[in-house]
Design a protein that fits this description.
With 209 residues, this protein is mainly β. Helix content is 13%, strand content 46%. The strands form two sheets. Strands 2, 5, 6, 10, 11, 12 and 13 form a seven-stranded mixed β-sheet that branches. Strands 1, 3, 4, 7, 8 and 9 form a six-stranded antiparallel β-sheet that branches. β3 and β4 form a beta hairpin.
Length: 209
């Protein structure tokens, strides 16, 4: 329970803008592969991971549109517990880092976006004509209460797993030119990341909401 409260306290309403391309087609283009999904009882409009070149400020987005009729795509995997996509981004070769996330909700009446108050760093390297795997991130909704004590949505945390083989194969089906033979696995060690929003499967078992 303490872990759940820590996660909720660290959230902040926020929004992000994107500039870096994820459909880059230059000769130095490489591929970044990431699994993004959500548990069946977690429903938002989108889940985004924000990245940038190390040492620079411009950012790009890796996004799963869950409940967005205009931009949603068919899921790549679906079970009794979760559903999501395997996102393949084409970006220029270089050294990058994921620095935050954004969980966005558009209810039709109001809009809200939740991010971490404190940015984190998940470094990864993209090489021309090669693929790098960044891990699989499953969103779990956080519920809070409003002034009247009624339950309200309060963002999400992500259970991070290494699903390298499965996700790379799914990515290859969606993007046939993907060079998976030399794909590098860069699923993060969460001890080095230190974010309360990125937790292991074992840590997730201790959270009761």
């Amino acid at each position: 329970m303490r872990l759940a409260l820590w996660i909720f306290a660290a959230l902040i309403l926020a929004g992000c803008a994107t500039r870096l391309p994820t459909d880059y087609a230059g000769p130095d283009a490489g591929f970044a592969v990431i699994g993004i999904g959500a548990k069946w009882n977690t429903q938002y409009s989108s889940y985004t991971f924000v990245f940038r070149r190390i040492g620079e400020q411009e950012t790009g987005h890796l996004t799963y549109f869950q409940n967005n009729q205009m931009r949603a795509r068919e899921t790549d995997y679906r079970t009794n517990d979760e559903a999501g996509i395997v996102y393949v981004a084409n970006i220029p070769a270089g050294n990058y880092e994921i620095i935050n996330f954004s969980v966005f909700l558009n209810s039709g009446v109001y809009q809200s976006a939740y991010s971490s108050r404190k940015p984190f760093s998940i470094p990864f390297t993209v090489r021309a004509k090669e693929a790098v795997y960044l891990g699989n991130y499953q969103a779990n909704g956080i519920n809070g209460k409003n002034f009247f004590g009624m339950p309200v949505t309060g963002g999400a945390y992500f259970v991070v797993e290494n699903r390298y083989q499965k996700d790379i194969e799914l990515a290859k089906k969606r993007t046939p030119p993907l060079p998976i033979e030399n794909a590098k696995d860069m699923t993060p060690n969460l001890k080095n990341v230190g974010s309360p929003f990125l937790i292991t499967t074992e840590q997730a078992k201790s959270i009761k909401q």
